[in-house]
């Protein structure tokens, strides 16, 4: 899945990172934004700011549907702007309308990782309501299977990150972004 050469005749406005929880979208997004001289935004942070409460609280008090509504709203808002690296929540691809907004808002890179690498990375953090289950490893496995095709259809390019350091992934994403956004 390589759609690096842009044939639309228009430069993408933004660089967008998608991928499962724990694939490093935020850490890598911040680094890449710095390298490109772009603003960094994170849809989860925008949601927290809009709702005035944490993600676990939104899920607990208002439910996942309310969270997904906010997610579409903030994606639409930031997607309309330019020269940003946008890091997204892992479930952004579950709504087909979001996939359309993603594609039209920028060049979309899918940060890929397998169950083992993800489990290892998310075990250190308790801020993810969807993984508060009896068997989080199994939940990751099941959600990944459900979402893999969605990430694939939303992304213009993908990078397998399991064995890469954050520095290596950031370098790959930056170089790819320069080409795709015409900044090289
Ligand atoms: C979610 C991923 C989270 C956050 C929310 C739901 C998901 O973002 O948006 O907890 O459905 O995968 P991260 O991918 O940044 O952890």
Q: Radius of gyration over alpha carbons?
A: 16 Å
> Strand-residue fraction?
5-15%
CA-CA gap between termini: 21 Å
Helix content bin: 40-55%
Biggest sheet record: 5 strands, parallel
Number of helices: 8
Question: Nutshell version of this structure?
Answer:
This protein is α/β, with parallel strands linked by helices. The protein is 53% helix and 13% strand. The protein is built from eight helices and five strands; from the N terminus they run E-H-E-H-H-H-E-H-E-H-H-E-H.
In terms of topology, how is this protein built?
Layout: E1 14-18, H1 25-36, E2 39-42, H2 43-51, H3 55-62, H4 64-79, E3 84-87, H5 96-105, E4 106-112, H6 115-122, H7 136-154, E5 157-160, H8 166-180
Parallel strand pairs: 1-3, 1-4, 2-3, 4-5
Bound molecules: shikimate-3-phosphate (S3P).
List keywords for this structure.
184 residues, alpha/beta, five-stranded parallel β-sheet, 5 strands, globular
Characterization of the model:
It contains eight helices and five strands; from the N terminus they run E-H-E-H-H-H-E-H-E-H-H-E-H. The model has no long low-confidence stretch (mean pLDDT 94). The protein is globular. Helix 3 packs across helix 4. The longest helix has 19 residues, at 136-154. It has a five-stranded parallel beta sheet with strand order 2-3-1-4-5, sandwiched between helices. It has 184 residues and is of the alpha/beta class. Shikimate-3-phosphate is lined by residues 21, 25, 44, 55, 89-91, 128-130.
């Amino acid at each position: 899945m390589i759609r690096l050469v842009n044939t639309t005749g228009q430069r993408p406005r933004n660089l967008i990172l998608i991928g499962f929880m724990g694939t490093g979208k935020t850490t890598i997004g911040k680094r890449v934004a710095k390298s490109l001289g772009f603003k960094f935004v994170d849809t989860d942070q925008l949601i927290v700011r809009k709702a005035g409460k944490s993600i676990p609280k939104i899920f607990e008090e208002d439910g996942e549907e309310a969270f997904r509504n906010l997610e579409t709203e903030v994606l639409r808002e930031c997607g309309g702007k330019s020269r940003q690296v946008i890091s997204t929540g892992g479930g952004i691809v579950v709504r087909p309308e979001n996939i359309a907004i993603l594609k039209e808002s920028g060049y979309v890179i899918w940060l890929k990782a397998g169950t083992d690498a993800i489990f290892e990375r998310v075990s250190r953090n308790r801020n993810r309501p969807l993984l508060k289950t009896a068997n989080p490893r199994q939940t990751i496995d099941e959600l990944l299977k459900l979402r893999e095709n969605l990430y694939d259809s939303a992304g213009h390019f993908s990078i397998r990150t399991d064995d890469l350091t954050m520095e290596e992934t950031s370098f790959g994403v930056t170089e790819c972004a320069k080409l795709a956004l015409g900044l090289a």
